[in-house]
Specification:
The protein is of the alpha/beta class and 544 residues long. The chain has one domain: FAD/NAD(P)-binding domain (3-Layer(bba) Sandwich). The strands form five sheets. Strands 4, 5, 18, 19, 20 and 22 form a six-stranded mixed beta sheet that branches. Helix 1 packs parallel to helix 6 and helix 1 runs parallel beside helix 13. GO terms for molecular function: cholesterol oxidase activity; flavin adenine dinucleotide binding; steroid Delta-isomerase activity.
Amino acid sequence: MSVESTDVLVVGSGFGGAIAAYYLAAGGARVVVLERGPWLSGQDFEHDFLLGSSYTRVFDFVAGDGMSVLSGNCVGGGSVVYFAALPRAPRFAFERHGNIGKRMWPAAISRDTLDPWYDRIAEAMVVEQQTWDDVTYAGGLWAAACDHAGRTANPVPVGVDHSKCTHCNWMMAGCRFDAKRSLLFNYVPAAVAHGADIRPLHEVQRISRTNEGHYRVHYTNIDEEDYRIHTGEGAIDAKIIVLAAGAGATPLILKRSEDTLGAMPHAVGRYFSGNGERLNTAVLNEDRVRDVLGLDRGNGVAYEANQIGNGPVVANWDRLDGSLPEYSRFSLEQLYFPPGLGTILAQAPGAADPAWFGPAKKAMLSRWKSWLIIFQMIEDDNEGVFGTPPPTGNAYRISQQMLGRGVLHYDPTPNTLRGWAEADAEVKDILERDGLAEVTPWTNDLVGAYTVHPLASCRIGDDPATSALDDRHELRGHPGIFVTDGSSVPGALTVNPALTIGALAERAIPGIVQAARERGIAVSYHAPVPTGFTSASAAARTTV
């Protein structure tokens, strides 16, 4: 097996990976990016759920023991499949103690110190505060219900070009209209323009050391149709490694590398957080929507608009109050979740167990246009722990795309359960008031709890006993290896985490550049925020 060499090897091309690739390449370093998933762009995104469509190709769904994780699997990572909600984390999130009894975040990081880095990522993603004119009908209904119940409601800041958006609600399968501002329109093409070599369908398995004291990254090539098939293998030597494979994969690469790298910090693969996520489905009573809220969208229809929109547009943030005790703070966000898991896991109101299956569920499905889905993000207890890694990848693959069985164990603590219960009660109080709807949470019986925003499995911190990384994202005991994806975020944020992950990655770049220079790489940190780029052309793609 021949071994290539580069200055910097980046694993993953989501927020953590693409940002690092751009700045290091723009600074003069030779950069190779290995991405497990395919490289797709607007014309490739399909509006169906067929096996082999973009929907099954760009997702990775891994069912663990008590927790399942849905994440991106493509160039651009989670930014291609996210709902483009880009709020900043509330100030109290950085002061959390969680289950360690002291501040989880490094002393060097607070909302104030992170704000300049938030500003940079917000400029690149073109984050815009939506107005009420931008709000979809489903979001407006949620806002009206909140107002009726004496609560407030807020349009969510997003990365969406409303002039291009068709409100098709296929955002999770990628945006074929190029309305969603993903990394395919900024950091990825900017990295390519500066010489970064992005290689899709390359799955990193482990890291070893070279005789020169550098690192060797071992990968396998993935078949473009059946991800269970490996079509080749290779290795690349690099002086700096940036791991950004996601909170469900990065710790497993490191744990699998212990035989060749040496012992990992205790926190690698521990303290996993699902960002405290949970979903509730409300089945609206159309007559009560009309009579109580006074809503009507024409032709005598009061609502029946669950399928019309573009992701989350309105959130209730009344409980994002730093004066409240920890585990009692959460956000409630209106969300469209497309058919699939959204229909399977929804429970029928008032039905006997199993409430997710049977005649009552069938009747509920017949009224799916009258659904309103509410996304909760609470403060969980970082109770997830990864077991022994599978022989390859982050899961035992079940199907040719998307599905796998993982090694994550998650047993929610009383703190987490109480947080979910308080959020459930709040949703019911808002939406069941005056007979507007019947509300039930999604079941945890089939796939355990679930998250689309995995965090904290290799988190930053000041205490070596409870954090895998120091405050500049360098892996303890392994100089030159950095982690910049969601696994570095210390804990649940109570809001969508994409902008925070990006801000932390932006903040980490000067330290990575300094470490690279110390290891003999001629690189500088001077590049501006990448704006004005278009999606990388097919000619720029590397598929070998």
